[in-house]
Amino acid sequence: MDIKTAIKNQRQYFNQGHTKEIPFRITRLKTLEQAIKKNEEKIISALKRDLNKTAYESYLTEIGLILSEIRFTIKNVQTWTQPQKVKTPFIYPFASSYNYPEPYGIVLVISPWNYPFQLAMAPLIGAMAAGNCAVLKPSESSPHTSGIISEILADNFENQYIAAITGDAEIGKALLEQKFDYIFFTGSVPLGKIVMAAASKHLTPVTLELGGKSPCIVDREASINLSAKRIVSGKFINAGQTCIAPDYLVVHKSVKADLVNCMQKYIKQFYGEQPRESKDYPRIINNLHFERVAAHLDKGDIIVGGETDQKQLYISPTLLDNIGWDDPVMQDEIFGPILPMLEYQDLSQVIAAINARPKPLALYFFSTNKQNQQRILKEISFGGGCINDTLLHFASPHLPFGGVGNSGMGRYHGKASFDTFSHRKSILKNRLSFDLPLRYPPYKNLKYLKKILR
């Protein structure tokens, strides 16, 4: 598809006003819902070929989440689109003020490979609900899922409304050279900088959903067994290729041995004695990422795991001990099934160490001590997270999701997705029956003006 022609056609279509009608938005969202249900087996097959995901994990982490998001959006979009009345300053006694949500126009959604269906569809739902036209660029690293996404969109929507454009980095670069009204990007920090630089040339607003090193802290007053279970689940789902996975573990020295034993127990319980034979354990996306992740096994002591097979793109669930804050594995996001562990005795030192680094996308704190819970929430800036769990904050449409600082900007999910893809147009409606004299020259009584505006 010619990129310039696609964008030109979408702009013409948007200007006709169809997408601004609420029944149109609801109908198209229902069309997307039915198309996903109809193609569920194809989506599952594509995810299996790209990441070796099982049907269960594909539905749990991708398809099911998206269907829930669509249903939630359909149920609420009528309310979200209504003008919101707000207060008016008392000096305009007969005026009224409103916020009118309106679509930006033509939006670009660039999605990643790690959750290739979910992270493409979720922002698209928000763009549709807000009344935009959209161009979707799925990742070339997950070609089978990108292919089925393109097929679903082409079969169910006009290109001038929703268009999927597939291809490599050169296609992505060509898209970023065009003028869009909004850009939504999910991916790495380096690529996020490229997207933001390209958007700045057109003064295009952006949402950047990035990543970073998300810490997981286990306090000495934590429930060790349940903490271990939830950490292992959150870290090794999708073979660690999750932007909000616990990237490293900081555990109180007094409970470290018990926690490690419990984590070993749950790794075996979830994936068996040989995880490579488990039907529930995915694979690394490609050779490039395999080599990058496997290189981290050279430092520290392997407590469990450490097995690799490049031919199968397999890296076993691995716990890495005797790691320091300055080791290579602690410099960049791992994005794989390796969990380095550090120990601490003073929570203040952990807080200081985390705050000395870029702000993380997620943070997980395990403790029954409410005072320590409040310290973490108050003293560390991060995108979002959980107390006594991992990942679950991402799945709630009532919790806006996004990063802060290096981990991103902007938020989505539920109403936050609608808000992200909507411009709030502020309108004051005044009456003709009353006119305030003091607003017009010649200006006379400054003392009276100060008294009124006090």
Report on this model:
With 454 residues, this protein is of the alpha/beta class. It folds into two domains: 3-210 and 408-427, Aldehyde Dehydrogenase, Chain A, domain 1, CATH 3.40.605; 215-395, Aldehyde Dehydrogenase, Chain A, domain 2 (3-Layer(aba) Sandwich), CATH 3.40.309. Helices cover 40% and strands 18% of the residues. It has 15 helices and 18 strands.
How do you describe this structure in short?
Helices cover 40% and strands 18% of the residues. The chain has 454 residues and is of the alpha/beta class. Strand 4 (133-137), helix 6 (143-156) and strand 5 (162-164) form a beta-alpha-beta unit.
What is the CA-atom radius of gyration, in angstroms?
25 Å
Low-confidence stretches: none
- And the CATH topology of the largest domain? Aldehyde Dehydrogenase, Chain A, domain 1
**Beta-strand fraction estimate:** 15-25%
Shape: globular
Largest sheet features: 7 strands, mixed
Reading off the top of the CATH hierarchy, the class of the largest domain is best stated as Alpha Beta
Q: What portion of residues is helical? A: 40-55%
Looking at the overall shape, the CATH architecture of the largest domain is 3-Layer(aba) Sandwich
How many structural domains can be distinguished in the coordinates? Answer: 2
